[in-house]
Amino acid sequence: MNIKNLDRPDWFVLIEQWVARGMGQTGITLAFLSGALAFKRGATSSSEAELRKVLADLIETPVDGYV
C-alpha cells in the first residue's frame, strides 16, 4: 500500500486500486466491497446495516480530489 493511502478509507483504497493492480477491467461490485470489508474485520458476512453504512460512507465522506 502506498503511504498516501494511509489516510484514506479502506473502501476508497479497494475501489481505487482494483483496476490499477490488474484485478479487473472495471471497478469492484458493492457485494465484493462489502465482503472484503467484512473479511478485514474478521467476519464472514455483512448485515444490511453494515452495507448501508458503507453506502453512507461513500456518499457522506468523499475523498478530496475525487468525485
Brief account:
The chain is mainly alpha-helical. 52% of the residues lie in helices and 0% in strands. The protein has 3 helices and no strands.
Q: Secondary-structure blueprint of this entry?
A:
Blueprint: H1 10-20, H2 30-40, H3 48-60
Description:
This protein has helices at residues 10-20, 30-40, 48-60. It is globular and about 30 Å long. Helix content is 52%, strand content 0%. By secondary structure, the chain is an all-alpha fold. It is built from 3 helices and no strands.
> What structural class do helix, strand and pairing data support?
mainly alpha
Low-confidence stretches: none
Separation of the first and last Cα atoms = 22 Å
Helix content: 40-55%
* Overall average pLDDT: 88
Radius of gyration: 12 Å
Number of distinct helices: 3
* Element string (H = helix, E = strand): HHH
The general outline is globular
**Beta-strand share of residues:** under 5%
Major beta sheet summary: none
The beta-strand count equals: 0
Offer a few descriptive terms.
single chain, 67 residues, 3 helices, globular
